[in-house]
Structure formats: C-alpha cells, structure tokens
C-alpha cells in the first residue's frame, strides 16, 4: 500500500507524511495515514468528474460542497465551472476561454485610456470631453484604490509582485497605471454616503483635497505590478462596464478570494490568465448578489433585509431561547449580520477558511440558502456567551466573531439545514 501511495508524492498531505516514523514503528498515528488516503481518494473523484466530456454539475456540486482540495489547481477549475464561466462541455472549454480572455484584453485596451487629443484639454467643460470622463472616473477610482491597498492585510500575497503583469500597463511610463491617478497633489474625489451598516456607496458630493494619502500597500516599480494593482484594475473595469451600479465599497472583499485562488493555481496557463478569468467569475457572482449592494432592493427577496429576516427566522426555529434573548436585548441582525451576508463572510475569517466556506456556497444549488444556515450555526455555537452576556458584550462578540474550526461551523450548518 505504501508503494502505491509513494506514486502520489505530489499530494500535499502525502508530502507531510512521516515515512521514517511509520517504517520503523515509531508509534505513528495511523489515523493520519487514513486522512492522506481520503485526500487522495477525494482528488481522484474530482479528476474523474472533470475529465468527463460533459461534466455532471450535480455530482460536482455534491463533491465541492464537502470541500475542494487545494492540490493540482482543482479549486480554481471547480470555481470557474460553478460560477458559470467554464462550460460543462469539455469540447467548448478551450474556445470559450480564448474568446473571454481576448475580450478582457479588449476591455483594457479600450477602457483604460489616457485623456486628451488635438481638440481636447483638461479645462474643457463639455460632458463629452475625455478629460471630463477622466476626472469623473477618478472619483470612483479613489475609493477602489483605498480599499484594495488594505485587502487581506494578514497575508503578504496582495503586496507581492504578480508573475504575469499586464505589459501594456506596466511599461506605459506610468501613464496607464491607475494608482498614479490618485497620487496627485490635488484630486477631486467622492465622499461616502452610508448605505446601511458596513457597506458604503459613492455619492455625488465632490470635495477637494490638497494631498491624497495612500493606503497600506505600496505600488511596485515600472515593469512590475503587485496583485492589489491587478485587483484595482478589475474593479475599475467592472465599475466602468456596470454604470448602473458602479463600485460599492466591499466588492474588493468579494473579488479578493477569487483572484487569490486563481493566481496561485498549479496550472501555469490558468495563473497567466488569472486576471481575465477572475474578472468574469466576479462579474457572474455579482449578478447573483448585486441586490445585496443596492439599497432600493433591500426588501426584495434577493435584497439584504430579506436575507437578514430569513436568518432571524432560522435562529428562532432552531433555538428559541437564544432568539428570545436577542429579541429582549433588541439585538437586531442589522447590527452584526449585514457584513456576514453581504460579503459572504469574507471579513470574518482568514482567507483559507473563507475559501473553504465558498466551496460550499458556490456548490449550493439554491445559492445562497446555505449562507443563512452557516450564519445561524455561528450564532448557535456561541449561545452560552450570548445567554450570559449583556447587549454590549453580545454585539461585540458577533461583530468580532471568535476564531473557530471551520468544520465545526459547517457541520452545524448542515445539521440545521436538514432539520
């Protein structure tokens, strides 16, 4: 059996296996070897489904719901499929990816442009002026720039250089580098108008600033670019292509885990096109959750208030004692779950944990019902603290959810979903 396992030396779990301890009877825990075998079986199961001429989406969802292995870029490919970017027909995959990636390159060429021309100048007040568009775009870009410079500060990934920078951008002598546009000494920019709790939307009010303070991450030199700069470009293009919604603060937390997953893919080709693929997957995901970010749809079935009411009802059904306690304290879901639901838990847990949660969320055929069960599980798992705490301590507890084993939360959520 060991000889057979050695052939799978590229599996991370097997790499960490203590061969010598096992070989010489040093009391190795066989349960850990069993875990290695289970991981290997799981990888094989995914590979068999993904190699089908036409992928069985229901079977893929069942597998992915229980977690997608990090090995061999499986999560990256599975997410591309579950987010309706890569077709289930294997024969169409290559042509679809080629067309989409070419389209994204076209977006960069046509949308990230320098203003000006023979008949145009910065003082031209015409709404059709390229300079007018340029300054208006900068209002949005300022907020994007601030947000992406603080993306996932607990890891170094977004500050590090991308392996595949956009050469047209990084070799433009700074002309097309978006961060350059918000590092000027004076720049018109938008203030923020609160839209509920935790998410803000750009308003039309314009202010002037004598200096623009940059965020935590520094841009890289000409010829290179950091991952946060790539995310900034994707969000800017999304805002330009979706003027009805534009950019809303918090979208950076949605695109971040997707881009990270794609950019660390074991497949070099997929890493090279992580930006384009991420952009379209993010766009598809936003088409499903964009109502969370639109205030006028808060009460709709796809809106955030409706989701929060569903969470409250779920808690009431599964633990009336906790629900009564929260009701007496007037501890409304708006005080803690707005961010949980809107940002798909991306700010409550570490990035690896978020990616594991998203395996299940993306595999949920009734997206995003399982998100409600996860949030309910989080509340019930801290019930003792909630029952003994006052309003202030309970708000603090839920707004700063304590570290907890992801599998514990997911198992509890599955239990709730089957009641």
UniProtKB/TrEMBL annotation:
Q: What keyword terms does UniProt attach to this protein?
A: Cytoplasm, GTPase activation, Membrane
Where does the record place the Rab-GAP TBC domain? 69-365
Output the lineage of the source organism: Eukaryota, Metazoa, Ecdysozoa, Arthropoda, Hexapoda
Source organism (scientific name): Papilio xuthus (Asian swallowtail butterfly)
Gene that this polypeptide is encoded by: LOC106126438
Write the protein's name: TBC1 domain family member 13
GO MF term set: GTPase activator activity
Pfam families xrefs: RabGAP-TBC
Top-rank taxon, per record:
Eukaryota
> Where is it predominantly found?
cytoplasm
Subunit composition and interactions: Interacts with RAB1A and RAB10; in a GTP-dependent manner.
Supply one GO CC term from the record: membrane
What task does this protein carry out?
Answer: Acts as a GTPase-activating protein for RAB35. Together with RAB35 may be involved in regulation of insulin-induced glucose transporter SLC2A4/GLUT4 translocation to the plasma membrane in adipocytes.
Q: Which Gene3D superfamilies match?
A: putative rabgap domain of human tbc1 domain family member 14 like domains, Ypt/Rab-GAP domain of gyp1p, domain 1, Ypt/Rab-GAP domain of gyp1p, domain 3
Subcellular location, in the record's words?
Cytoplasm; Membrane
User: Which GO BP terms, alphabetically?
Assistant: intracellular protein transport
